[in-house]
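Checklist before submission:
- one chain only
- standard amino acids only
- sequence pasted in full

Submission:
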Amino acid sequence: MIRVLIIIILTVNFLLPDSPRQFKQLSYATAGILIFSSLLFQPIGYLSLTAFELIAFMLTFAWLLLLLQHLQTLAGKNVNHLKLEIIVTTDKKDSV
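Returned file contents:
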């Protein structure tokens, strides 16, 4: 599954050609760290399975959140949906 995500991250330049430079750089850095941690886990055996899964999950989840934010910006729907409206009413009752 990590290998599929690495392929998706590395093809972000072709899948999203209008991406900003910072997003592409962050994507390639994420893919590099995932590849490095995968090499530390499988061939070298330095990382345990738990450590590898934690690193992979954190990087993958963070990158997917950034991707969704970027897709929302590209779609032009960068609108704040949370609107808070406070209405202050003053009821003055005459006490007789």
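Reviewer check: Residues 7 and 40 are 19 Å apart (CA to CA).
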